[in-house]
Amino acid sequence: MSIARTDNATLFAEGTVSTLRLIVYLATAVGLMVLDHRGSYLELLRHTGSAVVEPVYRIAAFPADVARATRAAVATQDRLASENRELREQLLLAQARLNRLDTLVAQNARLKGLLDAQKNLGLTVQFAHLIDVDPDPFRHRIVLDVGANQGVGVGQPVIDAHGVMGQIVEALPNTAVAMLITDPTHAIPVVVERTGLRTIAHGSGAIDRLELPNIPMSADVKVGDKLLTSGLGGRFPAGFPVGEIRSVKNDSSGMFNAAIARPSAALDRSGEVLLLRDQPQPYGPPAPSAEFGPPAALATSAARDKPEPTP
Amino acid sequence: MSRSRAQGWLFGGSLAVAFVLQLMPLPLQLSPLKPYWIALVLIYWAIELPERVGLGFAFLLGAAGDVLTGELLGEQALRLVVLTFIVLRFRARLRFFPVWQQSVAVLGLLLNDRVVTLMVHGFSGEAMPPAAFWLAPLIGMLMWPFVFLLFDDLRTRLRASD
Fold first, then answer.
1. CB contact under 8 A, A11 and B93
2. What is the distance between the alpha carbons of residues B96 and B124, in angstroms, rounded to a whole number?
3. How far apart are CA B125 and CA A186, in angstroms?
4. Each residue's pLDDT tens digit, A196-238
């Protein structure tokens, strides 16, 4: 239909496809892209078409799942045994840490209770598996097997056992897409653990590199320094490990230092991740607590029989 | 009747497989080498069945690819329309090229596709991709003879079984 019947008349027939149609289609495509760039309708479309999109993702991930299962099935006993031993050791260590953490949590709760803290930030997380699909090898995105129906929302931080992995950028009904912290368009506010220096870690496009440009020359940053989330910006809660400084150099302008960091999270290896359910600490100073200090009733001495606010 | 139906199945099936292959994960080091399967299959059908594969079809296919792979809506549509246009324009010659010459033509098409991608990314304000970005067309070229021979063989069998 798109091709004229005269096509087989001459070998070098001109105008078998009309240039006008090409221009119309190109203009349509460009128009779509501009519209999508402004309003991101694609997300909407994917949301609507998720009944079709999601099965395709699962089919595409199937061979990798089978390969992994096969590898696990044929792994030698020796390796399994050593892996088992290692895991046991790690479990012990983790349990020891957990126990210590438990006491800390208990102590913390007690102190917070003493301080009459208004709300207690517990760590509620959601477990998710990776669906092994990379929509684009040049963007660092991962697809998770939980979605809006499981309560996942855009902006939720994604972590693994070692540190921050990224954040949800798109929530389909039963899958979600997360952007990794190494994506070239991602940036995360961090703080250097040793000195408290605040800066921003940008994704580099390489899975094992974060870039920290624009560090003042006078700032104290050394190789081996650990980076934590600073909690500024209100997206990631404070205190999660992000990476470790690997090198510090002058940048090309010579006015600043630029550091390279290695992400703490196993970005290219993690098969299971955790989604933080918490609201991060609200941006800015905490709201003044009205019930702290002497009750208002005492100050005004108007209503002395008013019961004291419970802690 | 049954032959054209089988042809239709082959046509649709090959495109579906191309989509799945496009989404299929590869080890991290290999993923930049993933050829643009959808384009390879589309080139084959544009050469062999031009009455089915027009610019409109390429556009719809690209839009479907965009919905699946989640880049900018219209990006792949644009890329595939450009690709199909060139293939259809030179179809009469491409058809009678020997396979190695076709492979070189496919390399040219895929490199052109990369340039178009780069332009789109540039306009939407993204960073320059790494050097590995340019490797995928080479792999696509190496894959072409296999794609071509496989489909040709399948179609010959369909014809013979009729």
1. yes
2. 39
3. 14
4. 889 999 998 888 889 998 888 888 888 999 998 888 887 888 8
